[in-house]
Design brief:
Blueprint lengths: L12 E2 L14 H7 L12 E10 L5 H9 L4 E6 L4 E5 L5 H9 L4 E10 L16 H4 L2 H4 L9 E6 L17 E2 L13 H10 L16 E6 L8 E2 H13 L4 E4 L9 H12 L3 E5 L15 E7 L17 E4 L3 E4 L5 E4 L2 H18 L5 H10 L21 H10 L9 E6 L4 E3 L2 E9 L4 E8 L2 E6 L4 E6 L6 E11 L4 E3 L4 E4 L12 E6 L5 E2 L2 E9 L4 E8 L2 E7 L3 E7 L6 E11 L4 E10 L14
Parallel strand pairs: 6-8, 6-10, 7-8, 10-11, 11-12, 12-13, 17-24, 26-32
Antiparallel strand pairs: 1-15, 2-4, 2-5, 3-4, 5-9, 14-15, 16-18, 18-21, 19-20, 19-22, 22-23, 22-24, 25-27, 27-30, 28-29, 28-31, 31-32
Length: 615
Amino acid sequence: MKKTITLSSLLFLATGYTSASQPIDFSNINEHFKRYPTAAGAAHGVHWVEGQIIVKPKAGVSKEKLERILQRSNGRSKARMQKIGVHVVEVPEQAEDAVIKALRNNPNIEYAERDQLVALSASAPNDAYYYLQWHLPKIGALTAWDDTAGAGVTVAILDTGVESDHPDLAANMVPGWNSASNNSDTSPVHWHGTGVAGTVAAISNNGMGMSSVAWDANIMPIRVTDRSDGVATSSAIANGIIWAADNGADVINMSYDINISVDNVVKDAAQYLRGLGGVAVAAAGNSSMDYGYADNPYIINVSATTSSDVKAGFSNYGSIVDVAAPGEDIYTLQTNGGYAVALGTSFASPATAGVVALIMSANPYLTPEEVEDVLEQSADDLVAGSNVHPYYGHGRVNAAAAVALAKSYSSVDSQAPVVSILSPQHNATTSGDVLIEISATDNVGVSQVDLFIDSELIGSDLTAPYLFSWDSTQTMDGSVSVVAKAQDTAGNEGSSSAFSLIVDNVPEEEDTTPPSVNIFNPAGGSTVSRTVNISVTAQDNVGIAHMNLLVDDATLCSNVGVETLSCSWNTRKASSGSHQITAIVEDTAGNVVNQVVTVYVATSDTTTKGRGKKK
């Protein structure tokens, strides 16, 4: 069985026309549905890559140690996302769940999960003659363009590929990447990616075709699938985010129905993007459901609205939604140089990505967190009195208000992150693999946490929670200094306070030497009478734990932790003849020794004679 995540929207209705002034032909709509069936219903089935999982070891775990861990489950790392420390692991088919369970119980593994298949989330279009591009004046784009149309900003389209030579797009294209097959082929395998790109930055004011939200921005095509149905894997999406982040993307759009509660790897990649100053935007999905997804702090999730400023019937909703944007009857690009009408959160997402590009262009000094704040604070509240609404989040995006707020937004982040070591405790004694948990917070955002042991870098973690696995066997026994340092997106660095751990890996030498013992009074073979003082001394190379003195197998006296013992024996109560005195000594390692001496109690005449008178 395979697990899917769907393209978050859109069903394009291809027109085949290259002029927006011509009517759209829907005569072949039934055939269109045969070719591009709605995927929204499949988005929440159980679909994954067979024989492949995603594994993230804790920071500090060596390559060799991870290989040994994976080998125990017949696993093999086939690819590594170095920037976020995640491995794509090959495992036996049908054993994915068992391997994941075993790895999750390993203290050196931060997480192990399925490599989800993410499908296009499509919705059927309705009005064939709906007049074009209503969404641009709805969000105030014309006013925003008085200040900027997105110049200097690059938007990466993580999708099915983009038709780079489309006449209404070609001049805005920059080189991209195919993260599904690790090559430079970004040509479209499905119309979806071209339509999404057109919504963001189709060329405008050129006397042909259509307009777009940020028509001066650059488009970077990142093809995340080689499948004709548009389905992508979580690993390809995460790799696409990382490649785009490393190659200058300022904004990333993902018109996929991504379940962030499952896809930790996509969340980590989005956090990595933020650490480099970028912003990720994603579609909420088109199942008309609240799936209970938690809000993701590193991805702006977008629901879809209609021309009447209400939630589109197909749009998902809930806590995951940050903002809303037009997503119904959106006129955009089609492959083969054409145009189409589409709908779905797949188009609400790029409309929002376009507004983000306008914000960044208007004020290139904003941090990613400030960009999101501007986007949300400037959005139109569609429900009076609501702060964050499950349908619309902070509201429907307003490009004009966003650009105006961005221009007036000024802040300089000079506050360093606050860093502390949560566990183990200060001066704790440790051995073997030591799990070290770091807390790092910042007024804007933490980009990286580094762990140092005696000034040596152990590892770096780019995503919370910040967990490190340190192999203490590589360090000499004794006290070590532990320091955690965190950097924020503005380059400020914070450091933890003084902290030490005690390393104790070398076992103590086993004590096999027994103690010595000497009963020096009374002497063996002597005859005793009346009250006798019995004295014993003992010595050991480590320490005496216990001494016990017996007469004829009956304990006379004992003591703990001393090297001398003395006690009195009243022989008047003993029978005449021989008696045994035994001293038993045990050291702190459990070694035991004893000494036995024999003494004699003299025969005593206890008869009392009377004093009579002489006769």
